[in-house]
Design goal:
Helix content is 63%, strand content 6%. The chain has a 3-stranded mixed sheet. It starts with 8 loop residues before the first helix and ends with a helix. By secondary structure, it is mainly alpha-helical. The chain folds into 3 domains: 9-130, MgtE N-terminal domain-like (MgtE N-terminal fold, Alpha Horseshoe); 144-244, CBS-domain; 280-459, Tetracycline Repressor, domain 2 (Orthogonal Bundle). It is elongated, with a radius of gyration of 30 Å. A hairpin with a 5-residue loop joins strand 5 and strand 6 (239-244). It has helices spanning 9-18, 21-30, 33-40, 45-52, 57-65, 69-76, 81-90, 93-102, 105-111, 117-127, 134-137, 151-161, 186-191, 198-201, 215-224, 245-263, 280-307, 309-314, 322-345, 354-383, 395-426, 436-459; strands at 144-145, 170-174, 180-185, 209-210, 229-233, 239-244. Helix 3 (33-40) crosses helix 5.
């Protein structure tokens, strides 16, 4: 998100107005690049570039990489293509490719010819991968070694390539066709004998992802195996790039944002940190569709209540339990769905485990039903005295009917909440689309049917 710091902005503007190059350069060099990016984000795009151009190109690109993506595009659009090409050349391969995807088509076509051939081809290769895949988020800045090198030769080689690599702690061992054979860590090289062959000290069983794998699965591997970076290969096991741990953190944050928004029935691109950058109209479009659809489904609940109007006129006390019924069913169903969606995302369960999942949720539902049934029974007896009841119906009978109806609703809502994500996952869809509002609406409808049917059956009304 583009963070504004109004306390620093006037000072930076004063430096720009006075042309104090030394002060601007000191500002860029005296704070961490991420902090510098946060501070210049309070300025306009032209002012921000006025600050950044007073430092060297390497630091300029590093600060620029920490800026919000839309702000980067805003700055890029005011630069001539030569300056854009030089800036992109200094950025890491993955950040450069990601920014390039967000540039207007005309600007992309204008900038590419101004870039060096190697960087131009690298951008074209990285942007060609489908969005959301491991290939789309990998970087081509990594270190490789030949299995025939000695440990001392490998260290010398890493010294040469280190300035252009995202990380040299892991170096990947490849053959003549660039197929991944294994990896060595910098620690392995330092501890090995100087004459030891890389083929003898490398780790042959490397954890990797394929270019077409989902980016979330790749990020999860980095977290599971505590990796600094994850190699990405194609179907022929040729090393194509790596995903670093910092990119994995960004992926997990992005996926978490997407799951949260889907689960709450919010449409759109599900980008991370875009709330303040999005207009009210965009928020309206993202949220209105599901709200409108679910409001239409809500009319069904009203129709059900209207259908049992006669029963409610005879037993007005029943109306006081409708909110409790709706809230309890929605809460238990949402809890169940949330746990199952999370378990599916973490690969703890799969659609094949639906019997085990339903068995576990049924046990939980029974315990919840007994607890809430007792609460409802007590509520009727304690606060129902003085209520008008039909002849032949006692307050105890009403209490029992309400308790049974609530208990059945809890069980049904819990099982529905667990089953729906499993069914969606079975269809190879994102289980997070079983949004909490949608689930609540479904549970409300079934809950009212259960409530009125149970009371009618038990009381004979």
């Amino acid at each position: 998100m583009r963070t504004r710091n109004p306390l620093v902005a006037p000072e930076l503007r004063e430096m720009l107005a006075s042309g104090d190059s030394q002060a601007l350069r000191h500002f860029c060099e005296s704070v961490h690049p991420a902090s510098a990016a946060e501070l210049v984000s309070a300025l306009s795009g032209e002012e921000a570039w006025g600050v950044l151009r007073h430092t060297d190109m390497s630091l300029r690109a590093e600060i620029f990489s920490h800026l919000d993506r839309d702000f980067q595009v805003e700055i890029i659009e005011i630069l001539h293509r030569g300056a854009i090409a030089r800036l992109l050349a200094e950025m890491s391969a993955d950040d450069r490719a990601d920014l390039f995807k967000h540039l207007p088509e005309e600007l992309r076509e204008s900038v590419l010819p101004a870039m060096a051939h190697v960087e131009r081809e690298d951008i074209r290769r990285l942007v060609a991968y489908e969005e959301g895949t491991a290939g789309a988020v990998m970087t081509s800045d990594y270190a490789t070694l030949s299995p025939e090198l000695t440990a001392s030769q490998a260290i010398e080689h890493l010294r040469e390539v280190a300035p252009d690599a995202e990380t040299i702690y892991y170096a990947y061992v490849i053959d003549g066709q660039r197929r991944l054979l294994g990896f060595v860590s910098l620690k392995d090289l330092i501890l090995a004998r100087r004459g030891a062959r890389i083929s003898d000290i490398m780790h042959g069983e490397a954890i990797f992802a394929r270019v077409q794998d989902d980016q979330e699965d790749a990020a999860r591997k980095i977290r599971k195996y505590d990796l600094i970076a994850l190699p990405v290969v194609n179907d022929d096991d040729v090393l194509m790039g790596i995903i670093t741990h910092d990119d994995a953190m960004d992926i997990i944050t992005q996926e978490h944002t997407e799951d949260m928004e889907k689960f709450m029935a919010i449409a759109g691109s599900h980008e991370d940190a875009v709330y303040m950058r999005s207009s009210a109209w965009r928020h309206f479009k993202n949220r209105s569709i599901w709200v409108f659809v679910l409001a239409l489904f809500g009319l069904v609940s009203g129709y059900i209540i209207q259908s049992f109007e006669g029963m409610l006129l005879q037993l007005v006390i029943l109306t006081t339990f409708i909110p409790m019924l709706a809230d309890t069913g929605g809460n238990t169903g949402s809890q169940s769905a949330t746990l199952v969606v999370r378990a599916l995302a973490l690969k703890e369960v799969s659609p094949r485990d639906f019997r085990r999942v339903l068995a576990k949720e049924f046990q939980v539902a029974i315990l919840l039903a007994l607890m809430l049934g007792v609460v409802a029974f007590g509520r009727v007896l304690l606060f129902g005295a003085g209520s008008t009841v039909p002849e032949g119906v006692s307050l105890g009978m009403i209490a029992m009917a309400v308790s049974v109806a609530l208990g059945v609703q809890v069980v049904v809502a819990t099982l529905v909440g667990a089953l729906m994500p499993l069914l969606v996952s079975k269809l190879n869809r994102d289980p997070a689309v079983i949004a909490s509002p949608a689930l609540t609406t479904i549970v409300d409808i079934t809950g009212l049917l259960i409530f009125f049917a149970t009371v009618k059956l038990m009381l004979g009304i």
